[in-house]
Amino acid sequence: MRVSSEEELAEAVRDAGGPLRIRGGGTRPVGRPVAGAALDVSGLCGIRLYEPGALTLVAAAGTPLAEIEAALAGEGQRLAFEPADWRGLLGTTGEPTLGGVIAANVSGPRRVQAGAARDALLGVRFVDGRGTVVKNGGRVMKNVTGYDLVKLMAGSWGTLGVLSEVSLKVLPAPEAAATLAITGLDDAAAIGAMTAALRSPFDVTGAAHGREGTLIRIEGFADSVAYRAGRLADLLATHGAAEILRDAGRAAEIWRAVRDVAPFHDRTGDVWRLSVAPTAAAALAARSGADEVLYDWGGGLVWLLVQAGSDLRAALGDFAGHATVIRAAEETRARIAPFPPEPAPVAAISAGLRARFDPRGILNPGLMG
Known about the structure:
By secondary structure, this protein is of the alpha+beta class. It is built from 13 helices and 17 strands. Helices cover 32% and strands 25% of the residues.
C-alpha cells in the first residue's frame, strides 16, 4: 500500500488489521525482519518550506535526500550532520529519504563537531499506532515546544510513529576545507592522534582512520582553514608527519568513502557497528577478529567487517558500549538481536513508550526487539 498524503497515511494506519512494515526509500533494511503488510510512504514528498535566511527547512518525510541537498546547495547551505548513503554497504537500490535518515538517526563524520541528525531536528509530524496525527516541536529554531519528543523520533526506526513531515535547522556550507593525512599508524596510535586533534582548539569536523590512513578534517573560511591546518600539522608532529591533501576533489571523495563505509562495499561478510569510548576501540577491534576495521568519530564509532553469521557480542564479551548488526542475512538478523539489548530499566521505558504510541503493536513490530 502506497500513500501520498498525511490523511491517507493516518487512514491506512487506523484501518490496519495487522502489523505494518514501514517503507520509505527502501535503502536501509536494518533490524530484525518484519512480518507485515508493506506501507510505502515514499509518496509523501516535497519541500514545504525553505527559508535560507532563517536556516530552516520543512519537507515531507518521503522527500528524496538528493532533492533536499540540491535545494540547500543552491543557497550555499547543507545538512550539517552529513547523512550517510548506505546503498553500497547494504546492496540496496532506491532513493534515501529524509524520513528514513531521521528515523535511523544517520549521522556522518561531522557528528563530532555538528552533532547527530537528531540535533538538527526542530519539529516533526507523525502518525502514531492509533492513526492519530501528532505534531511536535516547531518550524523555527526558537520554538522548542516538545523538543524532547521531537528528538525521541530520531533513531526509533518507525516503531513509535510514521513520520510525515520533518522540520530541520540547516547551516551554511564552508568556504574551504583541508584534510590532514598521517600514514603508517597502528590503530592505537591513530586514535591517539585523532584524540589530540579533537582536543585541540582548531575545530576539527572529521577524524577517521582506515585504509587511507589517519584523516583529520578542518572546514571554514579559507584563511582560517589554512592557518588551522598548519597549526594542527605542527601539533600532530609527535604522532607522525601530517600531509595536507591539496586535491579538494580527492579529499571530498575520501570523506564520502568514510561516511558511506565504502571499504566494505561488495565484500563478503557481515557488518557490525560499535559505539564505544575511543580509548577502548582498538582493543575491541583486535578482539573481534574482523577482516577490516574503519574508525570514525575519533574512534568512538567502529565499523567491523566480520565472518558471516558471527555473533560478535559473544566474541567481545562484556564491554562499555553498544554493538549493532548493520548488514547480515535475514536468518542472522532473526537469530541475533541486531540492536543491542537494553538494560532492564531502559527496556521498561522503551516498552512504556511503545505502549503509549503504538498500543496495538503494529508499527514495525519486532524490528528493534
